[in-house]
Amino acid sequence: MTDSDGFDPVPRPTATRPLLGMTVLVVEDSRFACDAMRLLCLRSGARIRRADCLVSARRHLQVYRPTVAVVDLGLPDGSGAELISDLSVAAPRVSVILGTSGDAFAEDVAFAAGADGFLPKPVESVAAFQAEVLRHLPEERRPLGPRMVSEEMVRPDPLAYRDDMAHAADVLGDDGDERMLDYVTQFLRGVAQSAGDGVLAGAAEQLAEARAEGRPVKSDIARVAGLVQDRLADRVAI
């Protein structure tokens, strides 16, 4: 099944809504980042569906085929590169496969897995989002004639950031799981960078460096956990 199945004709893209009639599957574990994608799709005319892990994404793809897949590289149950690799060789193929991450190395990983393009986080510019999708679309799916370029920047709901903090607190409470500690460190670093929360991003980066160097991390984990609790208690605004 594709995003164009059904009896109603698929609406054509327009100059102001160049992704009209398209469906974007966003594979993203951060509520804050996903809300940004929701706003970008809304401004562009696209429908959005969300999966927060690889398992959920594969369930979606058993039911329908989106026009665009935006896949975060760091997911709770594995690397988004696995899904990108599978999507790149699937038949029929998703028209546009984009990787996304806040990590500098992730762009090379996404392209090596078969992504068509890459969206570095934070993804805030409507124009940049539309341009990255449109340049990889087949010619027949692009809007005809000149396109109006929006200068708008999206601002995700701060409550979505709080949801991310609640998720991180749950994972941090799972003592002894080394893989999940690596995951939540990467998750917090990316989410905090996207939200402009430099203090938390820096603490998460220090924790990542300590783990990479084999140093004791108990104090770093305690600091990160405390900062997460501050944000859950609304003592820190973003």
From TrEMBL:
The modification 4-aspartylphosphate is found at D72. GO terms for biological process: phosphorelay signal transduction system. PROSITE patterns: RESPONSE_REGULATORY. It comes from the Bacteria. The keyword Ribosomal protein does not apply. Keywords: Phosphoprotein. Residues 23-136 form the Response regulatory domain. PANTHER family: RESPONSE REGULATORY DOMAIN-CONTAINING PROTEIN, STRESS RESPONSE REGULATOR PROTEIN 1. This is Response regulator. It comes from Salipiger mucosus DSM 16094. The lineage of its organism: Bacteria, Pseudomonadati, Pseudomonadota, Alphaproteobacteria, Rhodobacterales.
